[in-house]
Amino acid sequence: MNLYIPAAALALVLVVKFPYLVKNWRSPVVRSVNTTIFLQAAAFFFAAPPTIVAVNAMTGVSNFSVVLVYCLLCAYACACLVLLQNWREDTRSKPRTHRRVRLYIWCHGGVAILLAGLFALGDAPVERPSDFETYYANSPFIREMVLLCLLTTTTAAALAAAGCWNWARDIHWGGREWRTATGASLRLGLSFLGAGFLTNLTYGVAKFVAIVVVWQGRDGEPINRAGMSFAALGTLLVALGFLIPVAGPWLAERVIGPLRTLRALGPLWRAVRCPADRRTRVRLTTPWYAGPGRRLTDRMTDIHDRTLELLAYCSEELRADACARARAGGATEAESVATGLAAMFKAAAAARALGGPADKEEAAAAARALRAAEAEHRDLLVGVSRAMSAVPAVSPVTAVTPAALVFPVPPVSPVASVSAGTPVTPDTVVTRGPVGGGP
């Protein structure tokens, strides 16, 4: 496995985050995140066989790079624990946080000194870039050095994984905060972190098993090589766990939210379009490279323009009757208003398809009702769009004849709000008089 690939990916993340690090250097969380990413990237870089050979040649000490890598892994394990402590302090203040951080630093610093001392006491004359643990599994002091490093890193991985899962569980059972974009991103990130640390724990266990196999007189190198794949997977999961809480709220606000709203506006946009003017009407074009936010803005602008064109065919009487029927059926005020507008727009679109007569008084009344609804209710267009499914299709003949119009209106919750929409059972609304005025 090429260890330079994860090292380069982590270095790229560090470069992207460097301006934020400079700007927020006083934040313990920011410092801890960047330190963790740096140590992880450095461990992969110096663990690559070409780097091991180069470092050994520069220092003139066989296998000196192994001690360097072990110290970096120990520092990385410490940084993960420190990061979790500083990170959680931002959401739940703990008086013992600083004491725990100092304890982690002192303990892992002592382990690093012991690693260097055991290497100095041992004898490892043969350079082993890829199978150092299994080759020197029976060498005095070197064997203890390897076991101490594995014990430290696996213990830190287990503690970090348990901390992540416990924190994610507390967020889930702590109230409705996890339902927000920030809470959901934090919980998802902690889940990835927990999975990544468990994978690192599996890597350490694989190393232990390989050493035990060598002690039994068998070849443990295949198990040792298999453990390296867990190291790469754990690195990917841990990196995602650190990035999701940072990028998740931004993605929810700039990408996921606009895409959901854009999809919810589809029924209203299709209902108010006029197929006859596709070639003559100057349409608002959105560039192919536009993001979801720009597309949503253009879609809402287009809907506003088309609903203004429909006002000449709208019936205020039909809208008021449909709204009253929905309110009497148990719908909320916002749902009733959206249902009335949906029924009015659908009937107006049908009347326009036949070129029905326009009524200026009805159009003015409908325009006043629309402006009042927009000023009073938030996200009105989405509510009207979702109400389109509860309003039946209107035939052009029915829309322009003086006969009564029948509109099924849901008796309970006819329109879902922007955050939650559910289908309902329709009832009927009977309105008298033609759509859009007339004799």
Secondary-structure class: mainly alpha
Radius of gyration: 33 Å
> How are the strands of the largest sheet arranged?
1-2
Overall pLDDT confidence:
79
Strand content: under 5%
Show unreliable segments. Answer: 395-439
- First-residue to last-residue Cα separation: 82 Å
Secondary structure tally, helices: 16
Pattern of helices and strands: HHHHHHHHHHHHHHHHEE
> In which range does the helix fraction lie?
55-70%
Number of domains: 2
Oligomeric category: single chain
Number of strands: 2
The main sheet comes to: 2 strands, antiparallel
Write down the overall geometry: elongated
Descriptive notes:
- By secondary structure, this protein is mainly alpha-helical.
- It folds into 2 domains: 4-255, no CATH class; 292-431, no CATH class.
- 70% of the residues lie in helices and 2% in strands.
- The chain is built from 16 helices and 2 strands.
- The protein has helices at residues 4-23, 28-47, 49-59, 64-89, 97-121, 132-135, 142-173, 181-215, 221-264, 266-272, 292-310, 316-328, 333-353, 360-376, 380-387, 396-400; strands spanning 405-409, 427-431.
- A two-stranded antiparallel sheet has the order 1-2.
- Helix 5 runs antiparallel to helix 7 (142-173), helix 7 runs antiparallel to helix 8 (181-215) and helix 12 (316-328) packs antiparallel against helix 13.
- It is elongated and about 100 Å long.
- Mean pLDDT is 79; it is low at 395-439.
